[in-house]
Amino acid sequence: MFNCPWGGGSGDHFLHFLLLFGVGRKLKLSPNSSQFQPKLQRKGIKMSIKYQELTGEDREKLDSLYGVPNCLIKVNPGGVLLPPKYKELGERIHNMEVHEDDVWLVSYPRTGSTWAQEMVWCICNNLDFETARSAVGQQRNPLLELTALLGNDKGSWKEAIGNSVEQVENTKSPRFIKTHLPRSLLPKQLFTVKPKIIYVTRNAKDMCVSYFHYTNLLHDYHGSFDEFCDLFLAGKAPIGPYWDHVLAFWEMRDEPNVLFLKYEEMKKDHKAVIRKTANFLEKPLTEEQVVELEEHLSFKKMRENPAINLDPFLQARNGPGFRQEGDKTFIRKGQVGDWRNYMSEELSNRFDKWTKENLEGTGLEFQAV
């Protein structure tokens, strides 16, 4: 963000954006400071958090593709690639207090989490569409690790946004919390207090295409699509190995406090997913309310909603004349099967082989698209 993949540059226009929508009142900044082992991660064995600088070809490649030195570090357990700023938040997140009435929305980036978080918030807030159109997502559904993604930026906008972990800690119950962190780095109490957790996933091909465009738009990725796919398949894209992230929550799918959703199911029968989610949240809706919510969550409405589409944020970053166009949009296409417009047959086969190897014996399947 702001001239570097996970932070950099300045943006006083962003302060206007924050004040305009009332995002996360000004907070005091007081972050606490503090090998890739997917099997341990998925079994939920508790391990201390360790940070490791990247070296050699991995570091050179990532620094080249993002245009910033030392842009990412490896965080274990999980082999998760995150900005160095995460070192100031990792232990605080891992040890934070979880409330029984929290609602957690967990996902790998670009799997439909923005769509799902809007659905969840509206269901739990009596379909308050007025607030949903005027209060940005970071106010209603704060991204827990956002401060780490902002890097070492300075300026009034950074002071205004404050500390995202502190924002979550200071939010009144019930809290609606969003995160892209894997299970191994989430608060330990999440698995003892057991609040409601909604996990969203998506077929890897479409997700990777969307993630590529997202990193171009917001994180100044300079490489090609094929280079990004190479990183992703090797577990070296930001946030780390995809299937370890997904399978850690797939293994929890039968727990009563966990709802596992697929993007493709939301596209195929959105009303059914709305009903299913509302019942899970113990907030059943009438059929009329389901129709109203489906309309609010339509691709057209989502793309036009400035509280969701990041227009104010992107104008703060790029200047007031910036317009989202084509693939340079946060709410981009909302399609299933868009990967066909980007992947060669060889690359598609690599994804298929990789998916089969990782999902074999797990029971997790994705509809062919």
**Estimated structural class:** alpha/beta
Q: How far is it from the N-terminal to the C-terminal residue, by CA?
A: 32 Å
Rounded to the nearest angstrom, the radius of gyration is 19 Å
Largest sheet: 4 strands, parallel
Strand content: 5-15%
Poorly predicted ranges:
1-45
In the CATH hierarchy, the third-tier topology is known as Rossmann fold
Q: Specify the CATH homologous superfamily.
A: P-loop containing nucleotide triphosphate hydrolases
Mean pLDDT: 80
Number of domains as seen in the coordinates: 1
Number of helices: 19
Give the CATH level 1 class. Answer: Alpha Beta
What is the number of E strands?
Answer: 7
Helix percentage range: 40-55%
Write the H/E string, N to C: HHEHEEHEHHHHHHEEHHHEHHHHHH
Strand order of the largest sheet: 5-4-6-7
Shape descriptor reads globular
CATH architecture: 3-Layer(aba) Sandwich
Family: Belongs to the sulfotransferase 1 family.
GO molecular function: sulfotransferase activity
Keywords: Transferase
InterPro entries: P-loop_NTPase, Sulfotransferase_dom
Can you describe this structure?
The chain has helices at 12-21, 38-43, 56-66, 90-94, 113-124, 129-134, 137-140, 146-149, 156-161, 164-170, 204-218, 225-233, 242-250, 263-268, 270-280, 287-296, 299-304, 311-318, 345-359; strands at residues 50-53, 73-76, 80-82, 103-107, 176-179, 196-201, 258-262. It has a single domain, classed as 3-Layer(aba) Sandwich (Rossmann fold). The strands form 2 sheets. The protein has a 4-stranded parallel beta sheet with strand order 5-4-6-7, sandwiched between helices. Strands 1-2-3 form a 3-stranded antiparallel beta sheet, with no helix packed on it. The chain is of the alpha/beta class and 369 residues long. A hairpin with a 3-residue loop joins β2 and β3. Residues 1-45 have low confidence and may be disordered. α1 runs antiparallel to α18 and α15 crosses α16 (287-296).
